[in-house]
């Protein structure tokens, strides 16, 4: 007999669409409504390449072990390590993230999330500036100018435009798209640009200059140049006029802005520009968070330790210094001697020079499915999929916490990240 | 599909006799072209086009030109699954969808089953359910193309 559940939250990306309807039959999703292709893959292919038993590498061979043996071996490795790194966290619940930070504190290790390669860096810009922001609901109800800077939501967050920003009719935007102007600033014509009102193609790595020119023009200084980053100055002028005349402008910045030359300085400059614009009209800047709970880890870490990511407990107290306590530098300097990887696949995503070091240290992975990281891991613990098989809290890209309900029962013997970390934390406390 | 030439009333008008003879019952040839595009008149109603030899070549060309109109669905909408990414822009922007399922106008997907809904997203792909609700279907056949304009992947195409 099939069962219907509505208002399910999709763990596909940072938009956390909360209107998904699923039809279940015998603990399997048979069809889903309203989710995009990205979210559908999570619901329908949940059992693809699924890991079902904990495994451990012993003398060159991989053997299946029971969960208790795996957990006690993990505790042993982490306790014997001088600087263990607990990495990942972007695709799990806040409850598990909290336990992870407590575990790092017990172990005197380092806890870092994937945001240190991603939008966590924009939080460094936040530390230097004020941050004018809004919820996506406010953007839907009020925004008349939407700017996507270095982001391509149609590929990365397919429902971002239809659910919140561009298409829907809001309380003060009853005509929907007709009342809004969408501007895309990118280095190539993306699919998002296909439906934008204006597309500004800019030269790669020169976003900082454009923002600086915008700020100069806003403050009444006219630079003596004709073009900036391949963009005629009059185009930049038009963009500034559009923002100044807007009632509510929302700027969504993506990794295109953050991961080009200048990195967080680009965001820092943008946030300064937004702060200056707020003297004239309401302008907000919102990061396009990729993983469904990446900003959640930044929040959890901030309220537990005071720092958003890359927190080092090796001295007994939390320390944060991007460039020293973040994963890339720790791997580059070969500072860590064990790594617990949870809800992430660093072997696929990190540069080879960094990922190759993972083969030299004991690597423990907690994941739902087989990935390149699980293949080189010494211990692999299968877990349930947060958001679909496990309930818990996640933060949407605009920092709104939402409670995700579980709709499926995980396979026999598969526990959630939270339960495994709880067991591990208790064992570590006992053994210490 | 994108290589196909878009049909418009002017292209049709250029292949009509352009004499404004009113035999078809319309005030002029342009009005006939518009109605032909909307499929509220048939080509054979333009009798001079077939009776007079000088228009024979134009008649053949026009027949070939409007052939896709007969193959297309009632409103001329084509939705290609291969291109669709399930973004739901069509579901939210469609004015007729907003009438039958008001929740879609605010950006949300459908909450319960609506028998008259046009677009919905199922298994990550947009699907056309009931074309009869489309504003292009019933007379006066509004030339609404909002779903085509808002489709970022060009999965939706309106032939006429």
Provide a compact summary of the structure:
By secondary structure, chain A is α/β, with parallel strands linked by helices. Chain A has 18 helices and 21 strands.
Helix residue percentage of chain B: 25-40%
What would you call the shape of chain B?
A: elongated
Oligomer: heterodimer
Shape of chain A: globular
Which range does the strand content of chain B fall in? 5-15%
| Domain module tally of chain B | 2
Description:
The complex is a heterodimer of chains A (432) and B (160). Chain A is α/β, with parallel strands linked by helices. Helices cover 36% and strands 21% of the residues of chain A. Chain A has three domains: 2-44, no CATH class; 55-118 and 292-431, 3-Layer(aba) Sandwich (Rossmann fold); 120-287, Dimethylsulfoxide Reductase, domain 2 (3-Layer(aba) Sandwich), CATH 3.40.228. Chain A is built from 18 helices and 21 strands. Chain A has a nine-stranded mixed sheet. A five-stranded parallel sheet of chain A has the order 10-9-8-13-14. In chain A, a hairpin with a 5-residue loop joins strand 20 and strand 21. In chain A, helix 2 (67-80) crosses helix 18 (417-431) and helix 3 (94-107) packs parallel to helix 18 (417-431). The longest helix of chain A has 15 residues, at 417-431. The mean pLDDT of chain A is 93. Chain B has 160 residues and is an alpha+beta fold. Chain B folds into two domains: 9-71, Orthogonal Bundle (3-methyladenine DNA Glycosylase II, Chain A, domain 3); 77-158, Alpha-Beta Plaits (2-Layer Sandwich), CATH 3.30.70. Helices cover 33% and strands 9% of the residues of chain B. Chain B has a two-stranded antiparallel sheet. The model of chain B has no long low-confidence stretch (mean pLDDT 83). The interface between A and B is medium-sized, with 37 and 31 residues.
């Amino acid at each position: 007999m099939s069962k219907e559940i509505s208002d399910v939250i999709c763990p596909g990306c940072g938009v956390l669409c909360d209107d998904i309807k699923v039809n279940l039959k015998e603990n399997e999703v048979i069809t889903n409504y309203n989710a995009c292709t990205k979210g559908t893959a999570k619901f329908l292919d949940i059992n693809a390449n699924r890991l079902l038993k904990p495994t451990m590498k012993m003398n060159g061979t991989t053997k299946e072990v029971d969960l208790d043996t795996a957990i006690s071996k993990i505790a042993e490795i982490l306790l014997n390590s001088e600087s263990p790194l607990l990495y990942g966290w972007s695709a799990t619940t806040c409850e598990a993230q909290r336990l992870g930070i407590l575990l790092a504190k017990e172990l005197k290790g380092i806890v870092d999330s994937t945001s240190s390669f991603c939008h966590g860096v924009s939080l460094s810009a936040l530390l230097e500036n004020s941050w004018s922001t809004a919820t996506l609901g406010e953007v839907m109800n009020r925004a008349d100018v939407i700017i996507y800077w270095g982001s391509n939501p149609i590929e990365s967050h397919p429902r971002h435009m239809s659910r919140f920003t561009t298409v829907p009719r809001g309380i003060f935007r009853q005509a929907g798209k007709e009342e809004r102007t969408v501007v895309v600033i990118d280095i190539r014509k993306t699919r998002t640009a296909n439906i934008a009102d204006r597309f500004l193609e800019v030269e790669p790595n020169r976003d900082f200059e454009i923002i600086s020119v915008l700020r100069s023009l806003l403050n009444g200084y006219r630079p003596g140049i004709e073009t900036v980053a391949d963009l005629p100055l009059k185009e930049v002028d038009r963009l500034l006029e559009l923002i100044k005349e807007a009632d509510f402008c929302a700027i969504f910045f993506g990794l295109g802005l953050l991961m080009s030359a200048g990195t967080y300085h680009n965001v820092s400059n943008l946030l300064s520009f937004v702060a200056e614009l707020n003297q004239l009209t309401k302008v907000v800047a919102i990061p396009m968070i990729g993983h469904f709970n990446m900003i959640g880890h930044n929040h959890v870490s901030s309220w537990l330790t005071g720092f958003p990511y890359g927190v080092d407990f090796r001295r007994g107290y939390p320390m944060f210094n991007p460039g020293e306590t973040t994963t890339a530098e720790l791997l580059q300097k070969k500072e860590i001697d064990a790594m617990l990887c949870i809800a992430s696949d660093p072997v696929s995503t990190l540069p080879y020079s960094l990922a190759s070091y993972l083969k030299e240290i004991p690597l423990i992975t907690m994941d739902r499915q087989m990935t390149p990281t699980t293949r080189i891991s010494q211990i692999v613990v299968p877990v349930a999929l947060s958001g679909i098989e496990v309930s818990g809290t996640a933060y949407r890209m605009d920092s709104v916490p939402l409670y995700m309900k579980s709709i499926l029962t995980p396979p026999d013997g598969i526990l959630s990240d939270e339960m495994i970390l709880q067991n591990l934390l208790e064992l570590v406390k006992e053994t210490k | 599909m994108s290589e196909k030439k878009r049909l418009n009333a002017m292209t049709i008008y250029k292949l009509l006799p352009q004499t404004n003879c009113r035999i078809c019952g319309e005030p002029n040839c342009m009005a006939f072209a518009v109605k032909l595009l909307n499929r509220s008149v048939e080509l054979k109603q333009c009798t001079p086009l077939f009776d007079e030899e000088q228009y024979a070549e134009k008649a053949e060309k026009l027949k070939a030109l409007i052939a896709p109109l007969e193959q297309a669905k009632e409103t001329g909408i084509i939705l290609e699954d291969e291109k669709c990414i399930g973004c739901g822009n069509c579901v939210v922007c469609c004015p007729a969808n907003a009438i039958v399922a008001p929740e879609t106008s605010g950006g949300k997907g459908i909450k319960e089953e609506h028998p008259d809904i046009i677009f919905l997203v199922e298994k990550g792909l947009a699907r056309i359910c009931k074309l009869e609700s489309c504003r292009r279907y019933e007379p006066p056949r509004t030339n609404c193309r909002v779903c085509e304009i808002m489709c970022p992947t060009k999965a939706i195409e309106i032939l006429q």
